[in-house]
Amino acid sequence: MDPVEETLKCPVCQDFFTDPVTLPCGHDFCLTCIRAVWGTEGSDKAPFFCPECQIFLPSNLTLEVNTSLQTKVKDLATNRPSTAEQRTTTQSRATTSSSTIHCDHCIETPSVAIKTCLTCDASLCQAHALLHQQRTALREHTVVEVTDDPLSLKCREHRDELKLFCMEERIPVCCLCLLVGMHKNHKAVQLQEAYADFKSILEATMNQLLKRRNEAEHAIKDLESLYTQTLKSAADFRERISDKYSRIRVVLDGDERLMMQIIDAEETYMTEWLEAQRGSMEAQIKEIDSLRASSKSLLRETNELRFLQQITAQNRCDPLDLAPIQEVDKDLCDLEKLRTVERLVDDLSVALSQHFPRMWSYLSSPALDSKSAHPKLEISQDRKQVYWRRPSVSEAQSPQPYDSQCSVLAQECFTTGQHYWEVIVQEKPYWLMGLTTGPVDKKAAPNHSSSSLGVNNTSWCIYHGDGKYLACHDTQEKLLSVGKRIRKLGILANLQKGELSFYDADAMTLIHSFCVQCTEPLYPMLNPCIDLHGLNMQPLTMFWIKDP
Fold first, then answer.
1. Which residues of 321-334 are buried (b: 16+ CB within 10 A; e: fewer)?
2. SS3 label, residue 386
3. Is the peptide bond before 366 cis (omega within 30 degrees of 0)?
4. Pairing of strands 20-22, 408-409
5. Distance between CA atoms of residues 369 and 439, nearest Å
6. Dihedral through CA 272, CA 278, CA 281, CA 283, nearest 10?
7. Would you state the pLDDT for residue 418?
8. What is the SS3 assignment for 200-264?
9. What is the DSSP string of 45-88?
10. Locate the B box-type domain: which residues (predicted)?
11. What is the three-class DSSP state of 22?
12. Other CB atoms within 10 Å distance of the CB of residue 197
């Protein structure tokens, strides 16, 4: 609204001035409004006071209409919007003021109420609220913030003010409720006392919540720090391991290069030696051919003198003492060094094969069969998690921290070969998992496993409870010595050897092994155990590796 229009409104009725008067203190009011505040109704009895600044005025005060201010109000009314616009504005204001509470004591011009008197059961404008403060007879009335439903602050049965608080029912009551009503003989206190007590309790609760919130914020900061540290550590490990593999590849490449150089050198040496032997043989053949040619030429000479002269000149009178042609010794071409090289490579392969393939090479992540899950278990959408779904059960109803029936089977079963999987348990205080033959007929036992894990001769499992680890089979339990708390449990089923082994999957250290003699298909089984007071709600999660 225009600030100029605000200066032309009466503080009491919140409407434009009607016969405005100006008090000595400078504040303006409608003539009827200020008389209603003073309760004079046209008389001249004192005391008079200003509702705005609360100063007392002279008893002989004469109220005169401020013509200048009245002219301004008339000019504003003349320049206001057309009738259609006023109608639109009036409708808008009517919609806005539909929820406005008006003073019950203002008759001619309704004023906006700012207080509610529970004693009078009436809404009061600013002027009449001040009247309750000034008049001695009205000061004892209970005046509260304005409300459109005063009865909500009173007793609905006795229509009396709610001045007391019943400590047994913990609700506000009136005096009659304690004397003759439903709260008779109940312990009650004053509202102020109950207000102070519960306010102190709420303040203590707020402090406790603030402390908890600070602790949660510190925990979040620690988690964020661990998250950042984990990412950095993973990156550091990835870099170091990649560097180690690079060095291994350098060593292997160097060893391969050396072996290839040995083979190349051996090949060069042997081929050069064979070429030399071939050259020597070829030279002997050439010499023989030369002697044969000269001998053939001499044999064609028929003149005895010239024959003797030529044979003597060539020193061919005596028979030739030729060295015999040596046979090729194939042993000299034996590839012993190449076989040695191959043997060294085989030795290296055998040494490496002792560590390969890694157990993780057999890693799988069996999907959980929701049809075999106990009704109180929840299976995640990707069928990789199982957790307790229902509220905690009292210890009297469930004295054991686990129930071997609260399990779920994997969809996949094993009959042969090697199979390895890991289950993330993190900080779960109770869990149970292993292998079992599973239900013989799933249709006969829907939504429930008919196998009791670890308590018959066709199931093998590890149970963790309260920091202790037990190997369970055929009702037998063996306490295991585990140095560090397991966060991931690895299970290796080597059905070819008839072995079932459990590992700390992080350190890859063996926890326990079972000898499995069973011809039936075996199912991985997980039991997250029941929740105890919200402490065992964490899921069991299948660990899996994403495809690159």
1. eeeeeeeeeeeeee
2. strand
3. no
4. unpaired
5. 12
6. -80
7. 92
8. HHHHHHHHHHHHHHHHHHHHHHHHHHHHHHHHHHHHHHHHHHHHHHHHHHHHHHHHHHHHHHHHH
9. -S-EE-TTT--EE-TT----B-HHHHHHHHHHHHTSPPHHHHHH
10. 155-191
11. strand
12. 13
317-320 long-range contacts (CB < 8 A, ≥24 apart) are 320/291
CB contact set of 435 (below 8 Å; sequence gap of 6+): 414, 459, 460, 461, 491, 493, 500, 516, 522, 523, 524, 525
Q: What residue ranges define each of the domains in the chain, with the CATH number in brackets? A: 3-138 (3.30.40.10), 194-317+328-356 (no CATH), 361-542 (2.60.120.920)
User: Helix H segments across 152-190?
Assistant: 175-179
Are the CB atoms for 510 and 500 separated by under 8 Å?
no
Strands 408-409 and 430-436: what pairing?
Answer: unpaired
Residue 348 token pair? 């290296």
Bridge partners, 431 (sequence order): 464
Beta-bridge partner residues of 414: 522
What pLDDT is attached to residue 506? 93
> How far is 433 from 462, CA to CA, in rounded Å?
6
Cα–Cα dist 400/398, whole Å: 5
Which two three-digit tokens encode residue 66?
Answer: 């401020």
- The whole-angstrom separation of Cα 310 and Cα 301 is 9
Looking at residue 214, its pLDDT comes to: 95
Could you give the count of Cα atoms lying within 13 Å of 412 in the half-sphere of its Cβ? 11
Place of tokens 């040494």: 351
* Token pair belonging to 405: 């029936």
The rounded average pLDDT for each run of 10 residues, N- to C-terminus, in the chain (548 residues) is 74 83 86 78 61 77 86 80 49 52 78 85 84 78 85 83 90 90 91 92 94 94 94 95 94 94 92 90 90 90 89 86 79 84 92 86 92 91 89 44 70 93 94 82 41 72 93 92 94 94 95 91 93 87 83
Question: How many contiguous H segments (helices) and E segments (strands) does the chain have?
Answer: 9, 23
